[in-house]
Write a structure and sequence with these properties.
Structural class: alpha+beta
Number of strands: 9
Oligomer: single chain
Number of helices: 6
Distance between the termini: 59 Å
Helix content: 10-25%
């Protein structure tokens, strides 16, 4: 006799086993932590060697052949499992067309963080800001290592706020609702957002609040785009 599936083993009408198998896998584990040795020089050098190699679009075998380094040794270098000699670094630098010092960039790079206490975000006017839309910038890190600019805002809409579903700007945007209810347009679709709801979208399409249902409305808006002064 086939084993029946209990109601507790059903998610959204799908047996739990099938649901788990159908969930998309993430390329990164948001709860993972890196080994403390991530700050070691070997790890930093390996990261840069791999990044420069991929930027050139060549395989490990290609780079190994060009430098005279065995593929196994190159793999150890890229994974931070060995400390390459200066001669090896010079060979890699010549093959990749970069100065030897480029391999040390990540090791020496300062990592920044911005801490903003509740209520102390800087109130600003973004280009295209509509009347009654209060924007509080929660922090900004210029010229990040990844070449990405990120702007986190706390946005407040009240009875004095205009509706304007036609914002357009570069990059992608993530919205997380904190309070109130709003019908938010993106392109030709209208989404009803309640506290706890989120919306992640291409910001080049027309978007914005179209109907302010329950006031006040507060949501986090995180906009990211290629750093104009960065590497991408």
């Amino acid at each position: 006799m086939a084993k029946s599936v209990a109601s507790s083993d059903v998610v959204e009408g799908i047996p739990a086993v099938e649901y788990a198998a159908s969930k998309p896998s993430l390329s990164q584990d948001p709860q993972s932590h890196r080994d403390p040795k991530v700050n070691n020089l070997e790890i930093a050098i390996g990261h840069e060697v791999r990044a420069f190699r991929k930027k050139l679009g060549i395989t490990g075998a290609d780079l190994a052949s060009a430098t005279g380094i065995s593929l196994g040794m190159l793999s150890k270098i890229e994974n931070g499992n060995t400390s390459p000699s200066l001669t090896t670094l010079q060979s890699l630098a010549r093959a990749l067309g970069v100065p030897v010092t480029a391999f040390f960039r990540r090791f020496e790079e300062v990592r920044n963080a911005v801490f903003v206490r509740a209520g102390s975000g800087v109130e600003i006017e973004r280009r295209g800001t509509r009347s009654g839309h209060q924007y509080n910038l929660l922090g900004q890190i210029d010229h990040s290592a990844g070449g990405v600019q990120v702007e986190p805002y706390l946005i407040t809409l009240t009875a004095d706020s205009d509706v304007f579903p036609a914002f357009q700007h570069e990059g992608i945007e993530f919205i997380y609702m904190l309070e109130g209810e709003v019908k938010y347009r993106h392109g030709d679709k209208l989404y009803t957002l309640l506290p706890g709801d989120s919306l992640f979208f291409d910001a080049d399409a027309p978007h914005g609040p179209e109907v302010l249902v329950t006031l006040p409305i507060r949501f986090l808006s995180i906009i990211s785009y290629a750093d104009r002064n960065g590497a991408i």
